[in-house]
Amino acid sequence: MMNHGGLGDDAPVYVISVAAELSGLHPQTLRQYDRLGLVSPGRAAGRGRRYSARDVQMLREVQRLSQEEGINLAGIKRILELQREVAELRETVFHLHNELEAARSAVARRGAAAQGPPPRPGGELMPVRRTRVTVFGAAVQPERRDERRDDRPGDRPGDDRRDDPRRD
């Protein structure tokens, strides 16, 4: 892109006449594209339009789609919206991918640190800590096997002893 004077591609530096000349379009066309929301330049203190290098590139793309591809302005607007959305989604995927890789690395480091020396034959079993589970604000401690009640039909609400095969 055009990068003049160390300013970024998004810096609004060109007045409408310069942007029109750089893009090969008439200034009135730039105003129409602004009204339609195709290319929205920045505004100066006096409310005059100021186009960035990225805006000029976008003006060229709008012109190409219109002249070479035969797409109407409403179609071009939709294409540009979808391109912006795709760019945002790609950026989101990029960040999520980096977060996932960082999480995988952290898990791998913790796993390596927790393993210590290589396991000896038959030593693959690891102790598991008992945990508490919170359900809707109420803490529930898992029952031990020897503390479980006898789950016979009829002991729970809604059970019917008539369906019990041991009844006969």
Automatic annotation (TrEMBL):
<feature type="compositionally biased region" description="Basic and acidic residues">
    <location>
        <begin position="142"/>
        <end position="168"/>
    </location>
</feature>
<keyword id="KW-0238">DNA-binding</keyword>
<feature type="region of interest" description="Disordered">
    <location>
        <begin position="107"/>
        <end position="168"/>
    </location>
</feature>
<protein>
    <submittedName>
        <fullName>Helix-turn-helix transcriptional regulator</fullName>
    </submittedName>
</protein>
<dbReference type="InterPro" id="IPR009061">
    <property type="entry name" value="DNA-bd_dom_put_sf"/>
</dbReference>
<dbReference type="Pfam" id="PF13411">
    <property type="entry name" value="MerR_1"/>
</dbReference>
<feature type="domain" description="HTH merR-type">
    <location>
        <begin position="13"/>
        <end position="82"/>
    </location>
</feature>
<dbReference type="InterPro" id="IPR000551">
    <property type="entry name" value="MerR-type_HTH_dom"/>
</dbReference>
<dbReference type="InterPro" id="IPR047057">
    <property type="entry name" value="MerR_fam"/>
</dbReference>
